[in-house]
Amino acid sequence: MSVISGDRREHRAAKREARSGAGPTVAGIEPGVNPGATAKFGLFGEVLTIGLMMTVVALGVVTLPIALAAGIRHLRRFVAAEDSRAGLFWDDVRAGILPSLVVGVAAALIAGVLTLDVVLAGSGALPGGEVIAVVGWAGLLVLAVAILMAAGAWSPQQGWRAAVREVPAAIRADAAGAAYIAAAAVFTGVVTWALAPLFIAGIGCAALAVVAVPARRRRGVHRTE
């Protein structure tokens, strides 16, 4: 009896490992996806590590888009249990930093104008300041979501022009996912405002959100088929 119970326990344990994507396959059990995400503490550590690396690259401000793109690609490799050496992150940065400057400069100029509108609206110097402030904050949020989604679509082969063009269609295809990414952008802004060094964790979490949102959508599609 104890032998049978032991076999059952081993079989259940094997099934859990197979479904997680971390263990060997078991007959009749479909292996899980994203095995790199099964080690929760390991994933958290990787988010902080890549957040620090992204922060270093983003210190130039206009280099924020390539920092996000390289970080998102790194986390995508990590959760898929693919080669996720830090050197590949820096390879992506080197490959995309010069083309990304056009996106970075344009984003910085737009963000600067919107921030100036918010500041002037708060000072009372403009008529209808409350409305202008709301429009300014909304514009900043839309800009943040667009940058995150474009960074998620970027690859050295595709380039930035194609990545930016994909953003409107991606938002229409998954408005709820865009809302999740907007929440991640707000989270990053709030924690950075509360304590500047938390930007490292915030930007890492934002990059992870860009990786996780499409996976959530694919799982939902799979369940309905």
TrEMBL record:
The keyword Membrane applies. The chain crosses the membrane at residues 50-72, 93-114, 134-155, 167-187, 193-213. Residues 1-19 have a biased composition (Basic and acidic residues). Keywords: Membrane, Transmembrane, Transmembrane helix. It comes from the Bacteria. Residues 1-29 are annotated as: Disordered. The keyword Membrane applies. This is DUF624 domain-containing protein.
